[in-house]
Amino acid sequence: MSIDTSTAAHVAHLARIRVEEEELPALAEEFNRILGFVEQLTEVDVEGVEPMVSVTPMRLKRREDAVTDGGMPETVLSNAPDAREGFFAVPKVVE
Question: So where are the chain's domains?
Fold first, then answer.
């Protein structure tokens, strides 16, 4: 597949990028180089290769999913304009 200047102009319009008319041939050539690289990638045999998340083998750090109050309710409530009995107090909005 080859990208011409009208297709490059259309892609630039879709991406909301202003490209001057004299820059379109260079943009089309850049698109063609990108597509050529993608075509090279399709030639690589990846049969039996497991997908990876990172280039270094590592496991994600996990922690117990436990609900807590954060261990500092007094500090959190100290910024509240009104706090009562360990909770934020807000004006009544429903009758």
Answer: 5-42
